Amino acid sequence: MTVLVTGGAGFIGANFVLDWLAQSQEVLVNLDKLTYAGNLESLASLKGNPRHVFVHGDIGDASLVTQLLAQYQPRAVINFAAESHVDRSIHGPGEFIETNIVGTFRLLESVRGFWQALPAPAQSNFRFLHVSTDEVYGSLAPQDAAFSETHTFEPNSPYSASKAASDHLVRAWHHTYGLPVLTTNCSNNYGPLHFPEKLIPLMIVNALAGKPLPVYGDGMQVRDWLYVKDHCSAIRCVLEGGRLGQTYNVGGWNEKPNIEIVRTVCTLLDELQARADGVSYAQQISYVKDRPGHDRRYAIDARKLEQELGWRPAETFETGIRKTVEWYLANPEWVAHVQSGAYRDWLSKQYTA
């Protein structure tokens, strides 16, 4: 048996690939475009593993995707491939439209053609799982109930608008063509292998480098935080038992304002790798101008996933954030290669596309 994972060299995708291959004997075909956030060095431990087949390519390349589907006959496609950084979407929305909307459309069409040609047993067992975000739901006021799966889509950034559009396409391909789809909408992920432009790894890296720790606005933007390995277990759970055509919210039950996250990181670094001068890393916190359209609060109601499939996160925020900080302290070479761009050399050095 085989599964096809798209975007499997990114942060969440790479964690999923590593976890999947540690728990399954199936072959995993990993298709990734290797944009700035795709890092094959994150998958270095899989070098020489015959169950990991890496393919350098784009989900929008219909001929390539069709060829891979025909060659490997996967029982499932798990779609992580997306442009995902809000700040980048504000400065350059075009790539988000191209990958998240047009790319998803082309992927769906390639998968639909493959699925329709399958014999009946394989056709009924096939799954297309689309990984999305809570940002499609918009922003919540402090007193509002958390996002449920029936919450109206109200995206506020080019990134979240493009992901909302992709979710709609996936739903439509199920209702129009019968494609057996599942969708997950997750809250903010954190953990190992996170590209250091996102909040938590940026704070760790900047703190250790003696740089300012930039906090948008008043730092009171609230997010629900989900440890990435918990997210991976939720995806496996939905893939195995989710009801076709359904959406499942995945959250960590950890609502916290950004400034609290930053201060927690500083406290852990003070404990694990204190500054030479004995001053707390919190002294490096610097408030900066808020970004345009910054959503004030996200919160995920993940009760549907728990009630239907029995999933709950294994990590509390306290255990997950400690594991995350410890990972970054133990892997300075990975961080240095990401910052310098040297990680890009891994494609030519370690893999043949």
Structural summary, described in words:
The chain has 353 residues and is α/β, with parallel strands linked by helices. The chain has one domain (2-350): Rossmann fold, CATH 3.40.50.720. Helix content is 43%, strand content 16%. It has 13 helices and twelve strands. It has helices at 11-23, 62-72, 86-91, 94-116, 120-125, 158-177, 199-208, 228-241, 258-272, 303-309, 317-330, 332-340, 346-350; strands at 2-6, 27-32, 52-56, 76-79, 127-133, 181-186, 188-190, 213-216, 222-227, 247-250, 255-257, 285-288. A seven-stranded parallel sheet has the order 3-2-1-4-5-6-10, with helices on both faces. Strands 7-9-11 form a three-stranded mixed sheet. Helix 4 runs parallel beside helix 6. The two termini are 22 Å apart. The mean pLDDT is 94.
Sheet with most strands: strand arrangement: 3-2-1-4-5-6-10
What is the approximate shape? globular
Q: Secondary-structure element order, as H and E?
A: EHEEHEHHHEHEEHEEHEEHEHHHH
The domain count comes to 1
Average of the residue pLDDT scores:
94
The level of helicity is: 40-55%
CATH superfamily: NAD(P)-binding Rossmann-like Domain
Examine the coordinates and then state which fold CATH places here, giving the name of the CATH topology: Rossmann fold
The CATH level-2 architecture is identified as 3-Layer(aba) Sandwich
Unreliable parts: none
Structural class: alpha/beta
Number of strands: 12
> Radius of gyration in whole Å, from Cα?
20 Å
The CATH class turns out to be Alpha Beta
- Number of H/I helices: 13
